[in-house]
Amino acid sequence: MKSEFFDVVIVGAGLSGIGAACHLKDKCPERTFVILEGRENIGGTWDLFRYPGVRSDSDMYTLSYSFKPWDSEELIPSGETILSYILEASKENKIENHIRTNHKILKAEWEDKGSLWKVTVENHTTFYCKFLYLCSGYYRYDKGHEPNFKGSEVFRGPLIHAQKWPRDLEVQGKNIAVIGSGATAVTLVPELSKNAKKVTMIQRSPTYIASWPGEDWLANILRKFFPARLISFIMKTKYNIFQQFIYYFAQKTPDKAKSFLLSRVKKEVGPKIDAEKHFVPNYDPWDQRLCLAKDGDFFKVLKDGKASIVTDHIDSFYENGIKLKSGEKVQADLIILATGLELLPFGGMELFVNSEKIDFSKSYTYKGTGISNVPNFLSVFGYINASWTLRADLISKYLCRLLNHLKSKNFKKCTPKLGEIGSVSRPFIDGFAPGFFKRSIHLFPKQGFKKPWINPQNYKIDKEMFLTDSLDDGVMDFD
Ligand SMILES: Cc1cc2nc3c(=O)[nH]c(=O)nc-3n(C[C@H](O)[C@H](O)[C@H](O)COP(=O)(O)OP(=O)(O)OC[C@H]3O[C@@H](n4cnc5c(N)ncnc54)[C@H](O)[C@@H]3O)c2cc1C
Question: What percentage of residues in the chain have a pLDDT greater than 70?
């Protein structure tokens, strides 16, 4: 098969990959690039997830691109709307012709001789590029996290993971058990309650959930007088500051944050529901992502008795439902697993530098985007405490700065060289502890304690690192 050559290969045509291509076209117009996408469709997460009611769990102003204003009244839009927004960005910026779908990358090999990446694609041509940019997300696409439940084989009804929602799944008039307590469960329960006979959410332990309005009243007023770009800018700034304030407030004064959240929940669910039992987790607010209930929909269905919540451990499944450790039984015709994702570093790709395989877990992260001693390589991992796109946009802008610097100085490669940074390290993301992170975060590169070997998950520090700090920082080696 014939091979192809591009200046930049972008891996993944999701929110980040399409955004990256738009930045490249704008800031590095003379660079050739291709987006290689493993799936048949583009859109990544927002194409894959099809469960009823799937939507964002952060405001769309900060989830939208810096170059494409969000011009809609919806503050927390549906997955379908987000997908349309991504497709629109791709069309407006003429990205479509740069995308190759059904191109799953298996490995990439850098050779100093030639200063090129050789990119191996399943059943396809080999690609060569000068720079490799991974926008491959952070979790497995082929399967979600599926814990083994005793007796699952005897359960008579369908057992479905929310990540693999069948298009023709019938929920009308059914007793449905939803296992899980994260954003997926909190979104699914009110949506399924519209048509099901009864929905029961079974959680091993609670999650912090806050009601959030589906629209921003201020934006709606401003929209009547000002252009979309200005409103989007104001709202992006507002929500960005707000997200950081909430995160800071929660981390610094967890007890106050806890009682604030609990008092709000109590008001929403009313006196019949034991808010302390079902809504006070055994971790502090924002040690795991806070879930949003759009216009309080989740609390409403609990209050109205259309859905119920059970905090207990599952003992086993039986023919007609689930037995709990307390001895209680939850009858179900259909069981939904909203049990989360499986983390996957770097799109499952193998990386080699001069024939040596990179062990990610032994590497360090450079600014939360590069990998120690890996040349001409960046990857996108967004925020866990704010919208993903805020960080993805910053990293893409940094990529463009780097590419333009390489060109202007006639360099062929840039490598974050790992010097002496001490033996103490931290996980790639520190202080964030949901189950799916705990299970696999050790597979990602580690971080140190000082710039640039950090992944601060802080917009202000990232903005400095990516947009204003010198490219030539004494660690990034230009050659
Ligand atoms: C249900 C759900 C809701 C979410 N809600 C929010 C939210 O409200 N706010 C927020 O900030 N974040 C949210 N997230 C996180 C979300 O994933 C990001 O917002 C964003 O969509 C990530 O975009 P991405 O392009 O980086 O990754 P993805 O959307 O995961 O796209 C990655 C793409 O890369 C492709 N790919 C991967 N590996 C390879 C390979 N080896 N070869 C070729 N192609 C490859 C994949 O097929 C995919 O198309 C949510 C995640 C989920 C699962």
Answer: 99
State how many domains the chain has.
2
Alpha-carbon span 106 to 263, nearest angstrom: 50
CATH number of 434's domain: 3.50.50.60
Q: Which domain holds residue 94?
A: 3-142+342-478
Q: Please report the atom of ligand 1 found closest to the CA of residue 381.
A: 26
Q: What is the DSSP letter of 30?
A: T
Q: Which long-range contacts (CB under 8 A, 24 or more apart) does 271-274 make?
A: 272/303, 273/302, 273/303, 273/309
Q: Is 58 in the pocket of ligand 1 (CB under 6 A)?
A: yes
Length of the chain counted residue by residue:
479
Residues 171 and 254 in one domain: yes
Does the beta carbon of 164 sit less than 6 angstroms from any atom of ligand 1? no
Indicate the pLDDT class of residue 125, thresholds 50, 70 and 90. confident
How far apart are the CA of 396 and the centre of ligand 1, in A?
16
64 C-beta closer than 6 A to ligand 1: no
So what's the pLDDT on residue 422? 67
Give buried/exposed letters for 233-264 (b at 16+ CB in 10 A, else e): eebbebbbeebbebbeebeeeeeebbeebeeb
CB 140 near ligand 1, within 6 Å: no
Residues 238 and 280 occupy one common structural domain: yes
For residue 156, the CA-to-ligand 1 centroid distance in Å is 33
- The whole-angstrom separation of Cα 297 and Cα 295 is 5
322 and 298 in a single domain? The answer is yes
Reported as a single tens digit per residue, the pLDDT across 34-69 is 999 999 999 999 999 999 999 998 999 999 999 999
Q: Is 452 helix (H, G, I), strand (E, B) or coil?
A: coil
Mean pLDDT of 175-186: 96
> How far is ligand 1, taken at its centre, from the CA of residue 455, in Å?
19
The residue to mutate among 18, 34, 41, 45, having the most atoms of ligand 1 within 8 angstroms of its beta carbon, is 45
* DSSP label of 154: G
Closest to 290 in 3D by CA, of 381, 206, 192: 206
273 with 414, same domain: the answer is no
For range 335-358, the mean pLDDT = 97
Residue nearest atom 33 of ligand 1, based on CA coordinates: 12
| Whether residue 326 sits in one domain with residue 202 | yes
Residue 172 near residue 249, CB atoms below 8 Å:
no
